[in-house]
């Protein structure tokens, strides 16, 4: 009898979950590839919100992958489209555009066909020198050309090594909201002077190396007079951590009902 009742309860929960998923309208996906006048090739995976309309402007988030990733990592491993669809459908955040670029400014046709770790490792010097960050305005220009972007409501974020890239981009382009998930930043990744930017820092509470680095960064930001917030998420250096971080970051940046 107890087993029968449990099965009925489980079936009801699954039905409710399936119904909620069906009600969440799916956003659109797009992949951009562009070659600049200087010969640099950029790949960008783009999420567009449900009911996207080109006559309306939308906030835009530039979201960076980690060292082992590429432009598809947040989608394939992080399920970012489903996450965004759900947050928008339940009214937790405003509809937005998310652009996820490949963080090596090179023709990466070969890279997307093989494991990105090996490709990225052989081009580590480009990552270290900040080659992508210097060409990032080309990515911005491409996204603005194709989509209806609210240039007054832009943010940049990244996980692990992508957090370092995001910090560099924010420093060079003056973004107002900066998400640093499990970051390891050097001395040169922060602006020399205090800016109006909000630095949103998070680490996994079980990610001991990055947790220590995250706490140090938070203290540096506070000591430097920067606007910042810091959170420790009950997870390690993994996608569970970064999915939760992205959700909290978006709710702080563009909660539903704000303009």
Detailed description of the structure:
By secondary structure, the chain is α/β, with parallel strands linked by helices. It is built from nine helices and eight strands. It has helices spanning 2-23, 73-76, 80-89, 116-122, 124-129, 131-146, 161-173, 208-224, 239-253, and strands spanning 28-35, 41-48, 58-64, 97-101, 149-159, 177-181, 198-204, 227-233. It has an eight-stranded mixed beta sheet, sandwiched between helices. Helix 6 (131-146) packs across helix 7. The termini are far apart.
Give short descriptive properties of this protein.
alpha/beta, 259 residues, Rossmann fold, eight-stranded mixed β-sheet, 22% strand
At the fourth level of CATH, the homologous superfamily is: Alpha/Beta hydrolase fold, catalytic domain
Sheet of most strands: 8 strands, mixed
Q: State the strand order across the main sheet.
A: 1-2-4-3-5-6-7-8
- What spatial form do the alpha-carbon principal axes imply? globular
CATH architecture: 3-Layer(aba) Sandwich
Please bin the fraction of helical residues: 40-55%
How many extended strands?
A: 8
Number of domains: 1
Order of helices and strands: HEEEHHEHHHEHEEHEH
Number of helices: 9
Instruction: Calculate the mean pLDDT score and round it.
Output: 82
Main structural class: alpha/beta
Beta-strand content estimate: 15-25%
Alpha-carbon distance between the two ends: 53 Å
What is the name of the CATH topology? Rossmann fold
CATH class: Alpha Beta
Assembly level: single chain
Please tell me how large the radius of gyration is.
Answer: 19 Å
């Amino acid at each position: 009898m107890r087993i029968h009742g449990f099965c009925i309860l489980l079936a009801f929960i699954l039905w409710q979950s399936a119904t909620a998923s069906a009600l969440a309208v799916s956003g659109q996906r797009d992949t951009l590839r562009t070659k600049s006048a200087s010969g640099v090739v950029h790949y960008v995976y783009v999420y567009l919100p449900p009911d996207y309309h080109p006559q309306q402007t939308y906030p835009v988030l530039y979201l960076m992958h980690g060292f082992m990733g590429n432009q598809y990592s947040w989608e394939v491993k992080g399920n970012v489209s489903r996450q965004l669809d759900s947050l928008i459908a339940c009214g937790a955040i405003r509809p937005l555009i998310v652009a996820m670029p490949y963080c090596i400014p090179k023709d990466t046709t070969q890279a997307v066909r093989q494991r990105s770790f090996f490709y990225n490792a052989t081009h580590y010097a480009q990552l270290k020198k900040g080659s992508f960050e210097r060409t990032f305005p080309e990515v911005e220009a491409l996204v603005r050309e194709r989509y209806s972007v609210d240039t007054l409501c832009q943010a940049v974020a990244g996980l692990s090594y992508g957090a370092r890239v995001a910090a560099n981009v924010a420093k060079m382009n003056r973004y107002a909201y900066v998400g640093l998930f499990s970051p390891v930043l050097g001395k040169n990744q922060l602006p020399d002077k205090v800016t109006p930017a909000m630095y949103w820092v998070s680490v996994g509470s079980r990610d001991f190396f990055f947790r220590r680095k995250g706490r140090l960064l938070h203290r540096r930001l506070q000591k430097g007079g920067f606007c910042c917030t810091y959170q420790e998420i009950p997870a390690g250096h993994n996608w569970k951590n970064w999915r939760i971080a992205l959700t909290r970051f978006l709710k702080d940046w563009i909660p539903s009902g704000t303009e």
